[in-house]
Amino acid sequence: MGDPGDDDLRAAELNVAEALGDLPLDFQALTVVSNIFRTATAARSHLERTVLAKHRLSWSAFVSLFVLLVWGDLELRLLAHEVGVTPGTLSGVIDTLERRAFVKRVAHPTDGRRVIIRSTPAGVTAVESVIVAFNQEESFITKELSATDRGELARLLRRVLRTLDGADSPG
């Protein structure tokens, strides 16, 4: 049924079911989404403490640099979407990254109101210096999963993401 050491987590799930048992809830869905959220929160916290803090990078700063490394220059609003923050929040992150000479703002070629974010050579060096240690911690986080389990989990999480794609879009 469960894995060794899961007793406290299963107990918490049972407590939720007991407390909310009279409500018409899909407890399997609640448990799955709760576990996705708890896992994502724990993984982010672990990576911030073990890797990013040593490089004085916030989660949003690291993700911004990573996205720019992989996809190249992006308009601020598109980068904000990829990072998972509002453009206003990202603007503050970009201010910090600019002060560290990791990125620069570039005028949009056709619309002066829009801004393109470009990684600098120092930004590329920074993210490349972090990514190996970051990936080592990703390996640590998933060490109890076999290669087959990792592939299956990644596949199932992509399915959940596809369900959410566009779910919050108007119309």
Describe the structure.
A three-stranded antiparallel sheet has the order 1-3-2. The protein has 171 residues and is mainly alpha-helical. The model has no long low-confidence stretch (mean pLDDT 91). It has helices spanning 7-20, 27-52, 59-71, 76-83, 87-99, 121-141, 147-164; strands spanning 74-75, 103-107, 115-119. The chain contains seven helices and three strands; from the N terminus they run H-H-H-E-H-H-E-E-H-H. Strand 2 (103-107) and strand 3 (115-119) form a beta hairpin. The relative contact order is 0.09. The termini are far apart. It is 66% helix and 7% strand.
Report how far the terminal alpha carbons are from each other. Answer: 42 Å
Largest sheet features: 3 strands, antiparallel
Nearest-integer average pLDDT: 91
Structural shape: globular
Q: What is the helical fraction, as a range of percent? A: 55-70%
Low-confidence stretches: none
DSSP helical segment count: 7
Number-wise, the strands total: 3
What is the beta-strand fraction? 5-15%
Major β-sheet strand ordering: 1-3-2
Order of secondary-structure elements: HHHEHHEEHH
